[in-house]
Amino acid sequence: GFAVFNKENCVVFTDDMNCGNCADHCPASAITMLDDPKDYRRFPVVEKALCIGCGSCEYHCPATPFSAIHVEGLEVHKA
Length: 79
Fold this sequence. Notes:
This protein has helices at 11-14, 21-24, 56-60, 75-78, and strands at 2-5, 31-35, 42-46, 69-72. By secondary structure, it is an alpha+beta fold.
């Protein structure tokens, strides 16, 4: 699978705080933090080609009740 970011759940936007746990804990360096051009908050961007689908980003995400980043399974694994 691969990681998918959901901005609506991210503490950077919901709680107006800095985070970056997903990028810090990604063993494949598939997640980088970029500046939002509107307000300069840093948010994660996933490079799907580098993502190994391990779920470390999802596990370390502090957002509740739903993680702001989660691993989507590949179609071949959903059947």
